[in-house]
Amino acid sequence: MDLLKTVADYMAEALRNLGVKHSFGIIGKSICPIVLKMVDYGIEFIPGRHESSSGFEASGYALKTGNLAVAFGTSGPGGTNLITAAAHAKANNLPVLFITGHQSIKELGIPQCQDSSSYLADLAEMFRPATLFSKLVERGDHFSTIFNHAISVALSGKRGPVHLCIPFDVQTELLEECRIVYPERETLVDYAKVNRVINAINHSKKPLIIAGKGVNRSGSHEELVQLAETFNIPVVTTPGGKGAIVWDHPLYHGPVGVGGCKHGDDLLNHSDLYIVLGSRLSDMTICNLKAENHPETLIQFDIDPTFVGKILNSHTIAVGGDVRDNLSLVLQSVDSSAITERDTETAAHYKEELPVLSKLSLASVMSTMSDLIPANNTVFVDDGSHGFNAVKWYNVKKPGSFVFDAYFACMGNAIGMAIGAKVASPEETIFCITGDGCFMMLGTEINTAVCKNIPVIFIVVNNMQLDMALKGMEKTTGRIDGTLFEVPMDAVKFAESLGAAGFRCETQEQFAAAISEAVALNRVAVIELLTDRDEVPPTAHRVLNMN
User: Fold this and answer.
1) CATH assignment of 5-175, given 3.40.190.10, 3.40.1360.10, 3.40.50.970, 3.90.1150.10?
2) If you write DSSP's letter for every residue of 146-194 in order, what string do you get?
3) Residue 107: CB partners within 8 Å, gap ≥ 6?
4) Greatest alpha-carbon span in the chain
5) Computed from CA positions of residues 31, 36, 37, 39, in that sequence, does the dihedral angle turn out positive or negative?
6) What's the pLDDT score for residue 206?
7) In terms of C-beta distances under 8 Å and separation of at least 24 residues, what long-range contacts does 183-186 make, across chains too?
């Protein structure tokens, strides 16, 4: 008879067989059995400095591998600190398994430090709205059924985070057998809509492709270009869809919405058909679309039906399933002899005039950055005015190499995501563009990268204020309460104290030199940009009404 193995053994073995090579988190008593077993099974544990950052690192890892990632937190506050990262993963359809500890089931009802039960902080319940599935594993013989369901949910359908809360004694419980079923990728297509999609495109006079985050998440960059070129349709990108197509493709007409260009927004208001690829059409994308200019018809490709057809006053053709799979099916079904010929402006001059400022302009820095960095790169961008400046001005040369979340919009997420992505893809040069506000939240994660020799280059935009909040409040309320840092940070000193190389830049020339040196060093580096505090960010589209 086979030797008995613990629940922790079976989980570690299953995760290794799923291709997981690294895990992220902060260790503690309640989670020790599983973390240590994973190390025994060859899965490297990368200890973070804050659970939120560890969760973001797992998300960056999942994004780069396209596979399951794992993040740990202890019971109680270690688990609650992961919830923000779980919600971020859910908003971005990233398959992360969040594992939290719990006091032993046999001790349930006894007051204990860092309680995760229903008597204090019920982690299984708290994670439920932030994930696709959350469950307390109360017995070892329940583990296989619950674990199989969790990984199936994470890796199938619309994909996303799941959570298991596993008591200490369940982790160490011995089992005679444990059957693990490994999910395989399914082709998710909507066969019934193919002809309707093609007919709608051929009957439209001014169609427009709106490429969203789903293009980047599904890796459908080639299919997007083929669709645009087959039907000669202009393409615009949402903030999260930035990088779905290279910046200088003849059919690319720029970003739209917050951080967008006027040219792209004008197309939004003068098109009779939208072909929306993986976008919820949030306020960050359609803030400049007038109600009277909603298109006659909307084709919306999305794996998540929650908002499909519910935002615009348009006749909607909803195409469910994976964006790449569905685009491939549509393209295979096109009759080239029946395609409607149409005149479409190419090589549009969507770029706008750069601001002229007395001090360093972030817009100018972003407009030249892609010329300074290695070709094999990915740039992770944090939320704030620096993020939307990057959306507007940064030139993406490699499809899918720009990662930005304007939907859940969690400050500091890019710091951890960049680290996790570098772990998963060590051959790439990974950059993180963040702000001083984000950096003061989760910048200690730099030390994780230093200790584990994960050479990410962090660009910290330091304007000594919560710039996006300040400019928005000042415009709409006339007040700036809580937006200024009376004692501003010194990002270089902070970085050096954590073991990273630091560079301070006040000119374009200094920035170019810092990029070159940081790449050559091949170690964790922080480049601090002291930018003009008065620069107007491209975020003033949404209006706050306080009345």
Assistant:
1) 3.40.50.970
2) HHHHHHHHHHSTT---EEEEEEHHHHT-EES--------PPP---GGGH
3) none
4) 78
5) positive
6) 97
7) 183/151, 183/152, 183/155, 183/156, 185/155, 186/156
Burial of 4 (0-12, 13-18, 19+ CB in 10 A): exposed
Cα(161)–Cα(87) distance, integer angstroms: 8
Cβ burial 98-125 (10 Å sphere, 16+ → b, else e): bbbbbbebeeeeeebebbbbeeebbbbe
SS3 letters across 229-240:
HHHCCCEEECCC
Q: Which CATH architecture has domain 191-333?
A: 3-Layer(aba) Sandwich (3.40)
382 Cβ contact partners less than 8 Å away, ≥ 6 residues apart: 411, 412, 413, 414, 415, 432, 433, 434, 435, 438
Structure confidence by residue, pLDDT tens digits, 223-254: 999 999 999 999 999 999 999 999 999 999 99
Fold matches, 5-175 and 191-333: yes
Beta pairing partners, 208: 274
* Residue listed under structure tokens 């070709």: 375
Strand locations in 356-399 (E): 377-381
**Domain residue extents for the chain:** 5-175, 191-333, 362-530
Q: Percentages helix, strand, coil for the chain, rounded to the nearest 5?
A: 40, 20, 40
| 414 residue type, one letter | A
Question: Is the separation of the CB atoms in 203 and 30 below 8 Å?
Answer: no
Class for the domain spanning 362-530: alpha beta
Residues near 505 by Cβ (< 8 Å), separated by ≥ 6? 360, 511, 514, 527, 528, 529, 530
Whole-prediction pTM: 0.94
Residues 490, 482: Cα–Cα separation, whole Å: 19
The whole-angstrom distance between residue 116's C-alpha and the CA centroid of its chain comes to 28
* C-alpha–C-alpha distance, residues 541 and 358, integer Å: 25
Q: What is the pLDDT of residues 321-368, one digit of tens each?
A: 999 999 999 999 999 999 999 999 999 999 999 999 999 999 999 999
Strand pairing class (315-320; 377-381):
unpaired
Terminal-residue alpha carbon distance, the chain: 74
Find how far residue 119's CA is from the centre of its chain: 34
Radius of gyration of the chain (CA): 24
